[in-house]
Amino acid sequence: MELKDVILGFLDWKELTGYELKGLFASLDFLPWSGNNNQIYTALLELEKEGLVEKQVIQQEKTPAQKRYKATAQGLARLKEAVQSGAVQAETKNDFLLHLLWSHCLSKEELTALIDNYQRQVETALAMCREKIKRDKVHMQRSEREAYVFDAVQEHEALLLQTELNWLSKLRNGLANKGG
Amino acid sequence: MELKDVILGFLDWKELTGYELKGLFASLDFLPWSGNNNQIYTALLELEKEGLVEKQVIQQEKTPAQKRYKATAQGLARLKEAVQSGAVQAETKNDFLLHLLWSHCLSKEELTALIDNYQRQVETALAMCREKIKRDKVHMQRSEREAYVFDAVQEHEALLLQTELNWLSKLRNGLANKGG
DNA sequence: TTAACCATGTAAAAAGTTACATGATTGT
DNA sequence: ACAATCATGTAACTTTTTACATGGTTAA
Predict the structure, then answer these.
(1) Nearest to A84 among B83, B84, B110 (CB)
(2) pLDDT, tens digit (0-9, with 9 covering 90-100), for A118-175
(3) Of B175, B53, B164, B74, nearest in space to B119 by CA
């Protein structure tokens, strides 16, 4: 599933401007695009050229004009196709694993410090993740099912962080039991 | 930690050619670079220019000449710095989450089929992952500690896949309990 | 007055993938 | 014959990020 398909999903859910889409990409951590201007605005132009979205220009008194987009029928058709296509296997970039891989060059104390630091970092990330889920205003809830699914998607990240902490704890114990 | 640091780690462990490095990047799933020619050979040239690695050209009778690299003292110093620097928070690209996010456009049966397919895919990936760990010949074991750490790094991926299956199971139950 | 918000777009740079280019050897 | 392995490197392309460019409003 590429960026344009995800945007299509948002524009099927709600009429949105490029600026609002940027906000969504910035606030939803499970979206693997930064949502910078270049990505969003060029994607919208392309989607429009392909007839998958249509826009409505709204002139405002004090703030600049808005281009409010929504998905067309063809857009929705393409979205459904994308949703039903096979998912690409998830891939994780875990920088800490690389640090650990070459930790041979560290003393026992240095290695312990490395693990301690990372554990604190993950704990913080988990706390922030849970905080965000709580006070997040974005909710896809056109149906009870959609609301449930959206929660599951958001909880996914917290689960990964908790798994990381469990793995770290096991690593720490394993290293301690090996002695100095 | 960038590509050059990881290569430095390998060349501190063992003298290797670009070709052999390519093989390592292809076989170790936790390395977030494909290890294509462009990446490896240009990285090696740069590392050499910076004095972080040095090479030994070995002429062979039948196969092309080898350039066998190893890390220098400065290279090792840079590696240790990189290892001790703060790790970047892990980031996951999970395509299935995006499919799920817009699954609103699917019927109950279509959604179930989507989840079924993905579950089978993850089960296969987990089986392959475990297989690979078993028959893998690459082992960093300059010390007992390093061997332990290497195992932990390899197990990390299997743990993530198992977590994905647990999460899927919970999702499936949750959707079933909501009724049709 | 300084920063954040609103609102859209383009240009340049960096990172990553795929393809091109060469060429002998070994196994099926 | 055909594919795979060994061995190195470059060129073209795609994707992603960062920076440029503009400019009014609102709140601390």
Answers:
(1) B110
(2) 999 999 999 999 999 888 767 788 999 999 999 999 999 999 999 999 999 999 999 9
(3) B164
